[in-house]
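Quick one:
INPUT:
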């Protein structure tokens, strides 16, 4: 039987000076203890450093040993795989990243994020061979993939159909700088929220966090959140209906506030729902 779906809320990385000294980490906590501490207060963490340098196999193994059962890492794939004029030119980098030893994360491995540069426009002939490269598993471990397009041309039905055909999720974001694609394209949802504010103790005002809690619950139930625009409503309705895992990461914005934002959203999700 397939395990029950979950909503996991987290942040990008775990090593940041602005989170130390009581801001998130307690005073005196050693840097080597930060992952273990953070992973017991968050549902997931997106590893961003892997975008610049692929961790050694022993590092994947060590990280997996430091976190509790049920916690997952999501990974940003190495930039050499996607920062190309033609995506297929990164084929070797895709293979190297997948075969880097990340299977050592085991059940702690969550979705892999493939981020495209802002200037990379949608071209079906360019994208489809790349999506076909992404494997369903490595060393017996199932893989889930997420594409983060940053060019507005990806906000089209043709892209959505391609992503759905390969079961690749599309990043949902609240950023005004990138396409806001809320149509589901896979059997899980992945959001990167980028608008935390330094003047808000929880990063976002309560009036902005509460809708994200409602959206996360709707995604988990297999629904389409009210108020989020859809590019292809008919395709979205066909893709929706089944319960799905949800990942929400607080990334960039006022980075010092992101752990508080993640914890505040988690607290909202933990509250019992009341029927009207």
């Amino acid at each position: 039987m397939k395990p029950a779906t979950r909503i996991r809320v987290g942040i990008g990385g775990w090593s940041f000076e602005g989170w130390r000294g009581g801001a998130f980490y307690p005073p005196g906590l050693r840097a080597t203890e930060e992952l273990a501490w953070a992973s017991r207060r968050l549902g997931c963490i997106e590893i961003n450093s892997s975008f610049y340098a692929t961790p050694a196999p022993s590092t994947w193994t060590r990280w997996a040993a430091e976190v509790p059962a049920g916690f997952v890492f999501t990974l940003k794939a190495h930039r050499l795989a996607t920062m190309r004029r033609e995506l297929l030119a990164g084929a070797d980098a895709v293979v190297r990243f997948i075969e880097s030893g990340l299977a050592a994360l085991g059940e702690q491995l969550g979705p892999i994020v493939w981020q495209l540069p802002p200037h990379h426009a949608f071209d079906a002939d360019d994208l489809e061979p790349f999506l076909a490269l992404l494997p369903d598993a490595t060393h017996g471990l199932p893989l889930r993939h997420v594409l983060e397009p940053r060019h507005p041309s990806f906000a089209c039905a043709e892209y959505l159909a391609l992503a759905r055909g390969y079961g690749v999720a599309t990043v949902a974001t609240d950023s005004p700088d990138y396409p806001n694609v809320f149509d589901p394209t896979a059997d899980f949802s992945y959001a990167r929220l980028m608008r935390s504010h330094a003047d808000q103790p929880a990063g976002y005002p309560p009036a902005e966090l509460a809708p994200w809690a409602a959206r996360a619950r709707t995604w988990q139930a297999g629904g389409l959140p009210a108020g989020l625009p859809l590019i292809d409503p008919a395709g979205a309705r066909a893709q929706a209906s089944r319960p799905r895992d949800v990942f929400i990461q607080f990334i960039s914005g006022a980075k010092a506030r992101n752990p508080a934002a993640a914890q505040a959203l988690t607290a909202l999700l933990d509250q019992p729902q009341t029927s009207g």
